[in-house]
Design a protein that fits this description.
Low-confidence stretches: none
Distance between the termini: 40 Å
Strand content: over 45%
Helix content: under 10%
Radius of gyration: 13 Å
Shape: globular
Number of strands: 11
Mean pLDDT: 96
Length: 127
Amino acid sequence: QVQLVESGGGLVQAGGSLRLSCAASGRTLRNYLMGWFRQAPGKEREFAAAISWTGSSTYYADSVKGRFTISRDNAKNTVYLQMNSLKPEDTAVYYCAAAKPGYTSRHISNSGQYDYWGQGTQVTVSS
């Protein structure tokens, strides 16, 4: 079993930055795909970014491309999401997720691919 705990959320002004962290425990995430999703009030959960085990492959939603950067430190079993140039529309609860080996690259943005989820951390961007 894998436990994921997000941290780093908060209130920031538009144009500001935040770095989210996701600490995993329970087992080493070797060959797991790690992703970040977000859910704004009244909206469905949506994909934001994902990263492969080696970090050689990263994936981003168009809405965050060029502003967000996903990274991972496998020695610490931790995944990060650096968020720059934040906009009010980035306001959401951000969730960390892990997909077991065998995931399909074509469906990176599909939440159904992910097996484990954190509880989420709130990010609020004021205008």
